[in-house]
Amino acid sequence: MKLSEVKKILPTLDNVEFQLENGAFVPEHFHVTEIGMITKNFIDCGGVIRKEEKVNFQLWNADDFEHRLKPNKLLHIINLSEEKLGIGDFEIEVEYQDATIGKYDLEFNGKYFLLKNKLTACLAQDACGIPSQKQKLNLNELKSQSDSCCTPGSGCC
Asked: Which branch of life, at top level (predicted)?
């Protein structure tokens, strides 16, 4: 989800709520402790130089039970970040500490922002030596093929 999409959604909400993929919610008294721009320059295992730019939100549970971040306050923080840091309209990555600090993609289901688990991947599969997936066969098909070629008297054994 891009920053511009979040900015369009926030004025339509009464509350800002984040839900993890396992169904648990970020406690409603969370803080957005950072909004920033992250630029990642790297080289993949195939030798290709790459650059990623993302907007980063950091959520923090401070056990400040009286705190509730309202949509207009988050919108103000976003606008201030754009103005002071020159943040562009990039995909958002959310940092949130559950068991450890996790990085999540962001989606919206019409009511809540969803923190979607991120996965690692090889960006140069053609160059890193990982074989492509093997063809999956139905065991019933495999049995019928072997029966047809190795019947008694067929000369295959």
From this structure: Bacteria
76: left (phi over 0), alpha (psi -120 to 50) or beta: alpha
Give the C-alpha separation, 50 to 44, whole Å. 7
Residue 154: inside a domain: no
Is 30 part of any domain? yes
The alpha carbon dihedral of 109, 110, 115, 119 has a sign of positive
Q: Reduce the DSSP state of residue 76 to 3 states and report it.
A: helix
DSSP H or E stretch at residue 124: none
Question: Domain span at residue 115?
Answer: 3-119
33 touches 61 (CB < 8 A): no
Give the strand order in the sheet containing 113-117: 18-20, 113-117, 101-108, 92-97, 49-60, 31-43
pLDDT in tens, 128-145: 677 666 666 666 665 555
Give backbone dihedrals phi and psi of 71, rounded to 5 degrees, phi first.
-55, -40
Residue 156: pLDDT band by 50, 70, 90 thresholds? low
Number of domains in the chain: 1
In this structure, the dihedral spanned by the alpha carbons of residues 106, 41, 77 and 73, taken in order and rounded to 10 degrees, is 10
